[in-house]
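Ex. 9. Protein: ATP-dependent 6-phosphofructokinase.
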Amino acid sequence: MAAAVKTSGGFCNTQQQWLHSTRDLFLHGSTHSNAKECKSKKAKKPTSLRVKATSTKVELDFNDPSWKQNFQEDWDNRFNLPRITDIYDLKPRPTTFSLKKQRTPTGDEDSTPMDMWNGYVNNDDRALMKVIKYSSPTSAGAECIDPDCSWVEQWVHRAGPRKDIYYEPNEVKAAIVTCGGLCPGLNDVIRQVVFTLETYGVKNIVGIPFGFRGFFEKGLKEMPLSRNLVENINLAGGSFLGVSRGGAKTSEIVDSIQARRIDMLFVLGGNGTHAGANAIHDECRKRKLKVSVVAVPKTIDNDIPLMDKTFGFDTAVEEAQRAINSAYIEARSAYHGIGLVKLMGRSSGFIAMHASLSSGQVDVCLIPEVSFALDGEYGVLQHLEQLIKNKGFCVVCVAEAAGQELLQNSGATDASGNTILSDIGVHMQQKIKTHFKGIGVHADIKYIDPTYMVRACRANASDAILCTVLGQNAVHGAFAGFSGITSCICNTHYVYLPVTQVITAPKRVNHKGRMWHRCLTSTGQPDFR
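Predicted C-alpha cells for ATP-dependent 6-phosphofructokinase:
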C-alpha cells in the first residue's frame, strides 16, 4: 500500500519427523533427527499503614477535587496505543479477514442476504483493568490510588479483528522471532500467527532463527513459513525457530529489518524481549518505517506486570507440581525424609506459590518476595526439625531467587543482562544436612531441580488456548495499524497494552494478597523472620 510520510508531528509420526528434519535443515544446515526423540512464631512490631498508589505516573494532589480527572487523563495518555498512522497519512481499506459463510438463505425472496458477520471489534471497545472495589487500604491485597481507595475506572483497549486494516495483505512480508529461554507454547503461538496471517491473505511469512541473533549472525537464514509447514509443530515443546539471549545493537537489527523489507514483526518473549521490541519500535518510528512491531508475552515466571498471566505459566506449574509429587513420595517413603524442590522464578515466586497450592503436599514454600531466616529459633531449619519430629517427613519448595541475601553474589550476568543467581537449592541442601547432623538426628534429603523440564515441554490445554488467542490477536493488532504493543489477557479479557507500560518493573507476588495467604494456609508454615 502506498503511503505518504507526514511532515509534521507426546505425538510422533512420519510427518512430524519430516517437520523436524525441515527445521534442522534451516537452523543447523543438516538433519539431526533421532528416532529416540519420538518415544517417549516470632512476635512483630506493628507496621504503619502504607497506601499503595497503583498505575499512576502523574503526581496527584488528593485535595484537588479534579484529581480523578487528572488521573484518568494521564492513564488514557499512557495506555493510548501507538499506531503507524502517527507517522503516516494512511487511508484504511476494508479488512480481508472474515469467517462468514458464503451461502444463500432459504425461504422467501424478500429475506435479507446472510452476508453480514458481526465478529469485528470496534476501535472504541475497552476492557476494565481492575474490577475489585476495595473499601479500605487495610483490605487484603488492596491496591489503592488514594488514601480512601476511591473507585477509578481504568480502561484498556480490547483486542481482536477490526473492520478496517492498514496493510495490503498480498504486499506484506511478516516475520516471527522467538527470544530468551524456552517456554511451553512457543510453537503454538508461531502456528497461530502463521494461520491468521494466511487467513488475511499474507503469502510472505518468514521465521527469524535463534532470536534477535538471526538478524545479524552470518550463516543464519530466514525460514519461509506456511500453514503446511507449521501444522503440527504444537505437538512438541521448544521453539521451531530456535531461541537465544542477547543480540546486536537495535540499529543493526532495524537495518536488517529494513534490508529484508519486513512490514510486520511478531516478537515472542519476556521482559527483556519486550524491552527489545520497544527499542525496535522506537527506532522504526525514528526512521519513519511502516513496520508494525507486536509482542506476545512469554515467560514461565509470570512476572510481566498488568496482565493476568503469560503463556507457558500454567504448563510450568503443572510440570512443577509433578516434581513436588515426586519429592513427596520420596520423602514419605524414607526414614526422616525431606523432599527439597527448587523451581524457576528469577524475580518472582509465582511458580513456587502456585505449584505448592496445586500439589497440597508442601510444608514450606519460600519465595523471593518474602525474606526468611534459615537459622535461629524462628528459622526454617528449626521448623523442619519440628516437622520431622511430628510427622516423620516434610516437603520444601523454594524459588530460585529466594534467599539470595543469604548467599554470596558473584555479580555475573547472562547474555540478556540478567544477574546470575547463586544456587539457593544446593545451599539449603547443605544447610539441612549440616543442621540435622549437628543435632544427631538422621535426615534423608531428596533434592530435585526440574528447571529445564518445566520449560521444555509441550503446552497443556490451558496454555494452548491462551497461545491460540494471543497469537491471533497479535496479527489482528498489526493489521489494525498498531505497533509497539503486546497482545495479552487482563481481567480475563484479551487486550492490547503499550509495551512501554509492561517493561517498567517485574510483577511480583503480593505478600499481603489473598493468594499468598492461601498458600500459607495450605502449608501451615510460620513466619520465618
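Check your answer against this statement. The chain is about 30% helix and 15% strand.
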